[in-house]
């Protein structure tokens, strides 16, 4: 039944690629502004006809993000004075509030706080839900601007950020989120402004039940690949994910826009095959990772078997390593969720990744290290194109020709910018991890001994840099050191990828198109797609295998040997 | 792709900053207030029960939520999964605390995990009169992710049938058939895993007497 679920959900995703891709392309390339959009431009005070080159587009992204950041920081710090705070929660401390706003602005959704204990209903809506729209639309807009540059139809102009932001929010994100939220409520997700409920259980105890406007946050959380949960335990909490259907919808809505973006890109280029090659490369890696995590988690933990826990799959139980997992999802849906959330840079979880087997936990970590399997709005797609350019460059070196990508010559400047983006990512992950584990203070935050403890730190900086937000959540990350350094990692991961790649797009856009000749390396073929996947895996392995060996791989070997650590 | 032709008119940074602040406020009003409030209103009209947390009442008193687990220790009730949630002020364990969801986050080789599983296996065996070597379904001795898992597997429910029957002076067959009635199959026959909602079974058990 596991395989049937995998085939079914990935089949639905693939079937939606063409219609949704066409729709996305129409939204971002249409000429007409709707009445609501024109009103928005007037209220904001911008000119929708301004055409932005890459520098301008990048500047507007940075300045507008900064403004949202400041405004949201203010709202969080004033939480105690604002309405809809039935639990009477105080404002977050300054370093925690900084970490929260950076996290949500960069689409990371790392949470050093627990939702039901730290945020009022007002903050959940006005800060968190708002950011989920803005940061998703920003990333999406950047990806679209990047594509326009590559398609090179509009000189050095990459579009208008305000128009992209508004259209993506109004035409795509808001309507889908609204419909999804209602389906979620039907399945059992709360959506209310009333205070926490209090019930008397069958055994006579008092159970206080945290409620809130959950469904409206959950739908955009996954559609926008944000990932920050309403409650501490995120999509594992039955109120965030009451049934297998909501779990499947969470998974599909995470994949919907990133996967369709590949097709929209193909249409924009006038070369649909190029889009499919990118989609295919991503899908192959996705399936490989999915099968890995499923196999290891289903096989279970031999230490627990020796203690008398039955982890086999039988007619009456699904079995597997069930520590930190929910019965309604079992191993199959949990594996699919974990693979999706780290592929699509979402970062929500419906299980605790910290309690996975070593090799099971390696999968989410590795996907964030590669950071380009589907990817969320923006960075994921852009990262894949980084590697396409790198692939073209390497192939060019091998055969001794000037590399070309989409009819444009790839020269020293572009390759330098690509390398800046490619190197900033591991530098942030490995540099901050090394710093944290060489200081005594940060080590006190570990929840697990041995290699698994090292994995907790490695996972934290990988997640922050990849703008993912999931965690090996045992790590106590709400300390000054982690709040600040993970905040920095999130900023590096977001803007040192986005800005150099926008620059590449801007540079390519102004280059003259080289006519296709017999010497041109075709980039829309299965052969080239395979080469790119190969480049991604080799570069990833060379960079991260040493760290992975110290963490999850050592962890797994110890587990097989039955080593128990105090 | 091309927007309407017009010349690039660079806007000074101060005006850009002002527009950005206005946009921040406007989008907060639309996406952060109008959208969730409209959703709340619609959800309240269409699904009033679920929107308020799917609360269940018995004799006019709210006794729990249909989608959340609650703590069961007494022998006459079906027991749910171990829960690692803490008291709301964090001062110690309180299983199934629905205002402070939580998990163990113990890794596979952590001694705390093996100790906990060893104790739980022993407890399940003695409570249910099993032999000292009987294996126990994994979900009944490992903590869930939310600490509020409302379900157990069919294997875990069937294992408890004899104990419940004895405590309630019913036959094991009566209890087993009641458990099987409350077996939720995979959704649409494909999605998720078959499961037994613990609170639903216990409500039905109480209603029988």
Automatic annotation (TrEMBL), chain A:
Subcellular location: Cell membrane
Keywords: Cell membrane, Ion transport, Membrane, Potassium, Potassium transport, Transmembrane, Transmembrane helix, Transport
Function comment: Part of the high-affinity ATP-driven potassium transport (or Kdp) system, which catalyzes the hydrolysis of ATP coupled with the electrogenic transport of potassium into the cytoplasm. This subunit binds the extracellular potassium ions and delivers the ions to the membrane domain of KdpB through an intramembrane tunnel.
Membrane association type: Multi-pass membrane protein
Annotated HAMAP family: KdpA
Native source organism of the sequence: Deinococcus arenicola
Subunit structure: The system is composed of three essential subunits: KdpA, KdpB and KdpC.
InterPro entries: KdpA
Transmembrane parts of this sequence: 6-24, 57-76, 121-147, 168-186, 248-265, 277-296, 378-397, 417-439, 480-509, 521-545
Similarity-based family: Belongs to the KdpA family.
Main location as per UniProt: membrane
Domain of life: Bacteria
Name of the protein in its database record: Potassium-transporting ATPase potassium-binding subunit
NCBIfam families for the chain: kdpA
From TrEMBL, chain B:
HAMAP family linked to this entry: KdpC
Keyword Membrane set for record: yes
Biased composition annotated in UniProt, kind: Polar residues: 97-109
Gene: kdpC
Entries under InterPro entries matching the protein: KdpC (IPR003820)
Known partners and oligomeric status: The system is composed of three essential subunits: KdpA, KdpB and KdpC.
Pfam families membership: KdpC (PF02669)
Compartmental location: Cell membrane
Membrane-topology annotation of the record: Single-pass membrane protein
Region described as Disordered: 81-109
Segments passing through the bilayer: 21-47
Lineage: Bacteria, Thermotogati, Deinococcota, Deinococci, Deinococcales
Assigned keywords, A-Z: ATP-binding, Cell membrane, Ion transport, Membrane, Nucleotide-binding, Potassium, Potassium transport, Transmembrane, Transmembrane helix, Transport
Family: Belongs to the KdpC family.
Broad class of where this protein is predominantly found: membrane
Protein name listed in UniProt: Potassium-transporting ATPase KdpC subunit
Function: Part of the high-affinity ATP-driven potassium transport (or Kdp) system, which catalyzes the hydrolysis of ATP coupled with the electrogenic transport of potassium into the cytoplasm. This subunit acts as a catalytic chaperone that increases the ATP-binding affinity of the ATP-hydrolyzing subunit KdpB by the formation of a transient KdpB/KdpC/ATP ternary complex.
Source organism superkingdom: Bacteria
């Amino acid at each position: 039944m596991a395989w049937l679920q995998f085939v079914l959900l990935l089949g639905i995703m693939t079937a939606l690629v063409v219609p949704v891709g066409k729709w996305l392309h129409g939204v971002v390339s249409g000429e007409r502004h709707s009445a609501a959009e024109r009103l928005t431009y007037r209220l904001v005070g911008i000119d929708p006809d301004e055409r932005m080159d890459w520098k301008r587009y990048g500047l507007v992204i940075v300045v507008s993000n900064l403004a949202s950041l400041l405004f949201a920081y203010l709202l969080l710090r004033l939480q105690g004075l604002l309405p809809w705070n039935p639990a009477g929660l105080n404002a977050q401390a300054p370093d925690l509030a900084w970490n929260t706003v950076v996290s949500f602005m960069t689409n990371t959704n790392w949470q050093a706080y627990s939702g039901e204990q730290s945020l009022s209903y007002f903050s959940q809506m006005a800060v968190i839900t708002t950011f989920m729209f803005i940061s998703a639309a920003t990333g999406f807009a950047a990806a679209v601007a990047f594509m326009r540059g590559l398609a090179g139809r509009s000189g050095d102009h990459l579009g208008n950020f305000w128009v992209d932001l508004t259209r993506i929010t109004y035409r795509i994100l808001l309507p889908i989120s609204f419909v999804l939220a209602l389906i979620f409520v039907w399945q059992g997700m709360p959506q209310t402004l009333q205070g926490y409920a209090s019930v008397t259980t069958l055994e006579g105890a008092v159970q206080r039940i945290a409620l809130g406007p959950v469904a409206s946050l959950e739908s955009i959380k996954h559609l926008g690949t944000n990932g920050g949960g309403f409650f501490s335990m995120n999509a594992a909490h039955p109120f965030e994910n009451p049934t297998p259907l909501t779990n499947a919808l969470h998974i599909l809505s995470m994949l919907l826009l990133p996967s369709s973006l590949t097709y929209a890109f193909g249409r924009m280029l006038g070369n649909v095959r190029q889009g499919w090659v990118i989609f295919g490369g991503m899908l192959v890696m996705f399936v490989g990772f999915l099968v890995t995590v499923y196999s290891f988690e289903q096989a279970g933990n031999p230490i627990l078997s020796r203690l008398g826990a039955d982890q086999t799959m039988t007619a009456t139980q699904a079995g597997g390593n069930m520590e930190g997992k929910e019965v309604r999802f079992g191993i199959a849906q949990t594996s699919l969720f974990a693979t999706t959330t780290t592929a699509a840079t979402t970062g929500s979880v419906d299980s605790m990744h910290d309690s996975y087997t070593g090799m099971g936990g390696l999968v989410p970590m590795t996907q964030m290290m590669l950071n380009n399997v589907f990817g969320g709005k923006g960075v994921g797609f852009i990262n894949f194109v980084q590697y396409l350019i790198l692939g073209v460059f390497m192939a060019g070196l091998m055969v001794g020709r000037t590399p070309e990508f989409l009819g444009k010559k790839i020269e020293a400047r572009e390759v330098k910018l690509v390398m800046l983006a490619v190197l900033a990512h591991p530098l942030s992950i490995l540099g901050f991890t090394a710093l944290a584990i060489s200081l005594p203070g940060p080590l006190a935050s570990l929840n697990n001994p041995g290699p698994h403890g090292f994995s907790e730190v490695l996972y934290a900086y990988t997640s922050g840099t990849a703008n993912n937000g999931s965690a090996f959540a045992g790590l106590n990350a709400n300390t000054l050191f982690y709040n600040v350094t993970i905040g920095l990692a999130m900023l590096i991961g977001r803007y040192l990828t986005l800005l150099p790649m926008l620059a590449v797009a801007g540079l390519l856009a102004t280059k003259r198109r080289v006519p296709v000749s017999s010497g041109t390396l075709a980039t829309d073929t299965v052969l080239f797609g395979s080469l790119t996947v190969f480049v991604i895996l080799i570069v990833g392995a060379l960079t991260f295998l040493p760290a992975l060996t110290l963490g999850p791989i050592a962890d797994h070997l110890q587990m097989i040997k039955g080593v128990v650590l105090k | 792709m091309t927007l309407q032709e017009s010349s690039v008119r660079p806007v000074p940074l101060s005006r850009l900053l002002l527009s950005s602040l206005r946009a921040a406020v406007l989008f907060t009003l639309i996406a952060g207030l109008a959208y969730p409030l409209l959703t709340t209103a619609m959800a309240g009209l269409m699904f009033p029960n679920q929107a308020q947390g799917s609360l269940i009442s018995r004799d006019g008193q709210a006794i729990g939520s249909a989608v959340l687990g609650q703590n069961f220790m007494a022998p006459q009730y079906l027991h749910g999964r171990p829960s690692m949630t803490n008291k709301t002020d964090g001062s110690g364990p309180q299983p199934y605390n629905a205002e402070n969801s939580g998990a163990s986050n113990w890794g596979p080789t952590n001694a705390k995990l093996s100790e906990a599983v060893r104790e739980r296996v022993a407890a399940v065996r003695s409570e249910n009169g099993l032999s000292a070597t009987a294996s126990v379904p994994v979900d009944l001795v490992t903590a869930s992710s939310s600490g509020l898992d409302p379900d157990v597997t069919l294997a875990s429910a069937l294992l408890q049938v004899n104990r419940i029957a004895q405590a309630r002076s019913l036959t094991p067959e009566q209890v087993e058939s009641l458990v099987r009635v409350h077996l939720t199959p995979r959704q649409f026959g494909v999605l998720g895993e078959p499961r037994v909602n613990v609170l639903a079974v216990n409500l039905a058990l109480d209603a029988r007497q």
